[in-house]
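Suppose a classmate hands you a notebook page containing two proteins, each written out with its sequence and a corresponding row of structure tokens. How would you begin to make sense of it? This section walks through that situation. The first entry is reproduced here exactly as it would appear on such a page.
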Amino acid sequence: MKRNIPGTWTPLRIACLYAFFGVFWILFSDSILLSLAPDPELLSRLQTYKGWFFILVTALLLFGLMNTMVARRNMALHDLQESEQYNRLLFELSPMGLALCRMDGALVDINPAYARIIGRSVEETLQLSYWDITPSKYADLEKEQLKSIEKTGRYGPYKKEYIHREGYFVPVRLQGLLIEKDGQKFIWSSVEDISASKEAEKSLQRNEQMLRLFVEHSPAAIAMFDRDMKYIVASIRFRTDYNLGDKDIVGRSHYEVFPEISERWKEIHNRCLAGAVEKSDEDPFSRADGSMDWVRWEVRPWYEPEGGIGGVILFSEVITERKQAEAALRLSEEKFAKSFRNSPDAIALTSLPDGEFVEVNESFLQISGYSLDEIIGRTTVDLHLWANSADRERYLELMQKTGRVSGMEAGFQKKSGEVMSGLVSGEFIEVQNSTYILTVILDITERKTMEVELKQHRKGLEKLVQERTTALADSQQALMNIVEDLNQKTEELERVNAKLKELDRLKSMFIASMSHELRTPLNSIIGFSGIMLQGMSGEINEEQRDQLGRVFRSGKHLLSLITDVIDIAKIESGKITPYPEDFDLHVLIDEAVGQVRQQAAAKGLAIEEHLPEHTVVMRSDRKRLLQCLLNYLSNAVKFTEKGVISISANEVDDGQVEIAVKDTGIGIKQEDIPLLFGSFVRLDSHLKTSTTGTGLGLYLTKKLATEVLGGMVDMDSRVGEGSIFRLRVPLHLTVKSGEQ
């Protein structure tokens, strides 16, 4: 602290004033005395007084000068003492460690904060040297810092560790200056304990690592970007959904990784970088290869600790398969509704547990004789539909025990009171989380009547034969009468047989209708098991994944079997109608090959196409022809272990085209060839257990080729060398009048 000294006396001023009065006194004192005292005696006395006066003034000036200098020295000493006390107080109370040490590392002075860093008292610390509290691993670093301080007069800041009294290391940050005192060099250092900041840094790094792990292994597709839309981190699901594989995308621009991104998306990103949050439950996304995906997404900004926006986070989910499953489900429901309405069989939907009618089709109304308003909301008991209550009890008991009933004979009473015979089938179905009973009734009254008539005819014929046989011994004429009666009965049997064939056709229609109804729950099973396998409804363990995979594959296999059964039943019942359309044969064959190429590639098989150079335009049922080719190609892939599969097409002279599928597979024995195109035929081979199939593919192909496409099938094969399957159909299918 600086103080002001009272007065204005300084040595320079006193010396100047003394010199001024001295010169003035010498120059003018004698002249003045002579003018005042002409008497010599008086003049001598005055000169004596003048000398004493000069001595007095000189003494006073010297006293003032010495007094001033002493005061200044005392004040300077006082100020120095106060300054040292003040600096010492700051030194002692400083929260940062301060130390003064010699160049050899001996500690000269430290403050309490320095001692606290190493867990010691000031007195204990002063007994140590700088090297006693520094780990040996920092020896080279310390030598570099000593060189720096000798060269530049300062060192640091830099980080190192001190040895705590308890033995652990304390992270510190140091910096200092080189000073000289009494001709000796010292190092003046400030030391900061950075344990808290190191822990905070570790915590931050740990949190960043946890965040990165959370994002990378999240089951959702997540990507984090900076303000330049460069990737910071992306989840494994994000890489999988967007086909990125192991590509290194961190630090790369999102627009570089996906150059097909539209301006609309860039505008969304810019708005979110400005603070907006945007999302969509379903949005089309065009990929660079021309394919289209459906995506559910949300983009929101993320913020720096200071509050500024650091970038955006993109949450997305590819929902293409879900959209396809939903579309397939809607289509299945539409087909079910159409089949329900248009089925020739009576179909009813009743609720549980009261059994009230919820929905019936037109055939049910026609058979029962009731109107829709008279049926909906009422039960079979209310309407007395069961002719025998025992049949109703047996039907409900079977439903409760097995969950389904198939082909149970029962009597039903119409509104008019007439009783009809029917084959009743039923099963439980789920509709919008509610359980119902689906009941199908096939009217077999006519068939039952014919069976009774046939039984009566047989009894009459047996009686007649017995009578005629007895009379045969009596007369040749009697024998002739028997032959005539037999001829008549034969004609009657032929008429009955025709009716039985009609019943068989109705049976096929019934099978087709029931099989079609089975596809609705199967499509739901396949669709939802596929969604669960993808983890879209939550994580599943490996055992659940294996079981769901079996459900998914079994559902696919059963659906294929039902589809084949439906097609065969429709063909046999005459319900398949060809739909001719113009199409390019090359394109059709490319489509068929494309559907089995992946399956063939998985077995290391190549597929070759040998087609005419010119365009071949056909007019036929494209869907059924494609189905035949797929059956041929699928069989070739299944029963070929190595080699090549080829498909060729050639026009023949009679306006037909011959398509052949040749493989290098296991071949077929000559004695088994006649069995190939039969139903449910699977020939024995070492591949039988490892390949799936229903045994209906070639049977259905033959049916479609001959009865729908107006063509024929043929094949040749040698065991161990391979097979060739041929299909010959007209280039232009002629549909008979009444078929469309």
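The notebook's second entry, a different protein, reads as follows.
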Amino acid sequence: MTFLDHCQKKTLYLGEDELIVGERGPAPKAVPTFPELTCHSVEDFKVLNTREKQPYTISQEDINTYAEEVIPYWKGRTQRERIFNHVPETWRRAYEAGVFTEFMEQRAPGHTALDGKIYKQGMLDFKQEIQAHIDTLDYLNDPEANDKAEQLHAMNISCDAVILFAERHADLAELKAKTENDPLRKAELLTIAEVCRWVPANAPRNFWEALQMYWFVHLGTITELNGWDAMNPGHFDQHLAPFYERELAEGSLSREQAKELLCCIWIKVNNQTAPPKVGITAKESGTYNDFTNINIGGLKPDGSDGVSDVSYLMLEVIEELHLLQPGSSVHISPQTPDKFLHTASKVIRQGHGYPSIFSPETYIAEMVAMGKSLEDAREGGCSGCIEVGAFGKEAYLLTGYLNVPKILEITLNNGLDPLTGKLAGIKTGKPDDFYSYQDVYDAFLKQLNFIVDQKIRVSNYIDTMFAKYAPAPFLSVVIDDCIAKGRDYYNSGPRYNTNYIQCTGLGTITDSLSTIKKHVFENQTISMDQLLLAVANNFEGEEKLRQTIVNRTPFFGNDDDYADDIALQVYEDLLAAIDGKPNTKGEAFHLNMLSTTCHIYFGKVLGATPNGRLAGKSISDGTSPSHGCDVNGPAAVIRSLTKLDHTRSGGTLLNQRFLPSLLKRDKDIKKLGNLIRTYFKLGGHHIQFNVVDTATLRAAQAAPEDYKDLLVRMAGYSDYFNDMNEDLQQEVIDRTENESF
């Protein structure tokens, strides 16, 4: 009923010349808070209003309303308070030390992608389906019948809500048409009204209606319960291609008209800024990006190539608009034409960080191994950054990041966090008691398993809280099996229900262990006491020692089996600690190697590490090598990375940075395509590129006004370089600058 009330009363916006209508707020880039998830304090709003990078403008009137009405009402009732009032002290100490984060302590899980059902069924069709299941509820033999009835009635009301929302836009368009003097704009407004009268109540009949249908569903999901995360249309080009091809053949739509409508959708997504964060995150997390990801290319459910002219149109839109969002990814299978890869590579050459590239062969194998059908896996892909799932059929929840190098740090301090001085893990022995590398690794492994178990226990509790207190009935309508089961998206309703823990810092942990193994135990050129003292003092007065480590240690990402075997062992043990642990929905937790920007936060709460990394510096991102440590070129990097079995994870992230001069000629573009094909043939999951030199990045720091549109790839998304804080900017600068293939 709250969602319906919102759709009845919210202020509408219909902008000048726009063709696709609807905003989450009363105007573009206006965004709500979600106090039921986490309630902002007055101090949070002051921080958001005044922070130097990416501030949010919050009126004093709104701050007063929060202080006088919202904060008192929600005190003690928010999801965040429920969580922190429940967690055990062992979890809290590890969390406060930065051993892990918890996504759902201040937002909804998100990361949702749709399949093609909304282009074949309207909300009236879903209402019929819902009513049919209500009519067959067995109140005599099914103890869940009453709960199912409540859920199904909520779904039914949510369908009415978005229909009403669209009708209100139709009324507004007709009202504007009455006073419009420009005949062309008047006709457009009347078409908008016609479109909004038809969708989302009914299945779309043409390209324009298909786009507007998706947009109303998108707005419904991010308005209902999305406190900051990815909602996207899945294989958008594949969903739109039948409408486009039919209308093109009929002559009722031109290629340029279709491209204009696609541009309108891109602009709409760009208008939806991420909801603001709270607490420490409000101070540090500065992106406006809401992580929508448009999947382009890939495979159809029958296994055939999914590339169409709409795919090329989308690449043109990305190239010409180069907006902050939506993000985009191209999916390159063996069936994908070289022409498409070549075209995508030319867009990459622009240097905006979009699109990223995925291997359907790898992620389909990942999903099938986790229990999805082959057809459902083929219809899947990426929802936000690099995590994958079965589109329209799966709730795949990212529960937070794991600071793997931090686990080594507390292991080398017998369970203590040297920054807080508190016990952040368990006592696994003093370094003096480690007589071999295996002793060190065994202690690390004990610590790892303890930390993971602590995280999963609380993640499972949080899942039950969302199922009970924060359902998403509208989202449940458009995800397979929720209606049939009479269960919510957050309560085992979808066909598949997966939880991920995102492990960060593979390069840093590998290189640190390699340093200990090589120098302390094999060569015995550095004692454990000497190394740990240097680390504790941030290598002050020990630059010669640090340079010895940096220059004479086998590091991950150079096709060196010494380091790569350590990375493989860590990866296998992360899998053993996480993969298959039960979640609350009768399914399991899985490993995901995603970092977003958390590797920078994790670096801030981590002292110096044995690999020569200084305290406070970023740890390595995703499965990428440590910054500046991959010295043998990108071919060596992909050989190192593919020694890991990517099909056993839910996603691996690989960042690479190229000089612009490396991609100047068409033959260079072909080389980039060959590199991508080779990586995927060897089993890689994902790769993305920054094409920018250090001189440009330094110049942008010195004269930001001259580089306002400089977009760079941060993690699973791109951001404006000038909007990033100094830590984020430096992290991009520190990445290895490749001069050759």
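A careful reader of the second entry would note: The chain has 29 helices and 15 strands.
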